[in-house]
């Protein structure tokens, strides 16, 4: 692992610890277990970084993966598909090496049973959820209360799927009454069109624009969550 590459992380940790002296203040570092691109972070880099983070007193690491160039929020292997989580095998490799620091893993979890199994199998101490919470902000509560057994479908095509969730976060931020429902094909089609327009607008301003940014869209079919 390049020391330079991780230096900023440790400088930030040092500064947090300097300013917040309460030992009950929890610090998590979310990091990539794999990046799927040349010169990117490898599982071995990740392992070494986790060991250094434990030394630095980090409470838990949250393992994820990929970059804007090398997308990873999809299954690369059948073995992980069966277990929902894209990065579960990395968590399994890293967890036994850490004595105090807890391991979480984020990416792919959609059902309560998938989440429970990941913890029960000992692969991870906890799980993180991203995109489903854009659609259903109360999903964790609903699962814990036994009202639902998992997240609804998301038909926004990969790799745009992250931006689709960004649109939902934007809707939540605007305090819309509805959040777009990506399990509705018509609503997804409206989003794809809005996203194409937004991308063209950005490219006209900045030709080398990256894929970040979220198409604004007023929901027509969705969840009446925000009442
Ligand atoms: C709108 C949006 C923005 C995100 N921004 C970040 C980010 O800034 N840093 C990061 O590490 N991950 C970011 N992620 C990735 C998520 O934290 C998560 O790792 C990813 O969505 C996979 O989990 P999921 O399958 O449960 O969605 C973002 C995801 C979404 C949907």
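^ structure tokens above, recovered residues below v
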């Amino acid at each position: 692992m390049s020391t330079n590459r991780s230096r900023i992380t440790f400088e930030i940790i040092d500064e947090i610890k300097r300013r917040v002296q309460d030992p009950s203040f929890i610090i998590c570092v979310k990091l990539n277990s794999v990046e799927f691109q040349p010169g990117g972070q490898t599982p071995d880099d990740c392992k070494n970084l986790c060991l250094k983070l434990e030394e630095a007193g980090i409470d838990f690491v949250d393992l994820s993966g990929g970059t804007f160039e090398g997308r990873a929020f999809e299954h690369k292997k059948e073995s992980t598909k069966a277990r929902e989580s894209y990065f579960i095998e990395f968590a399994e490799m890293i967890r036994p090496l850490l004595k105090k620091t807890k391991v979480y893993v984020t990416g792919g979890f959609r059902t309560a049973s998938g989440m429970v199994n990941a913890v029960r199998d000992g692969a991870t101490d906890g799980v993180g959820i991203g995109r489903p919470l854009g659609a259903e902000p109360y999903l964790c509560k609903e699962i814990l209360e036994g009202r639902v057994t998992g997240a609804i479908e998301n038909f926004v095509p990969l790799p745009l799927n992250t931006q689709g969730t960004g649109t939902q976060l934007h809707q939540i931020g605007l305090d819309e009454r509805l959040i777009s429902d990506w399990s509705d094909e018509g609503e997804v089609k409206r989003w794809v069109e809005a996203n194409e327009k937004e991308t063209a607008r950005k490219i006209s301003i900045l030709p080398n624009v990256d894929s970040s940014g979220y198409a604004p869209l007023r929901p027509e079919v969705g969840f009446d969550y925000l009442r």
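The chain has nine helices and six strands.
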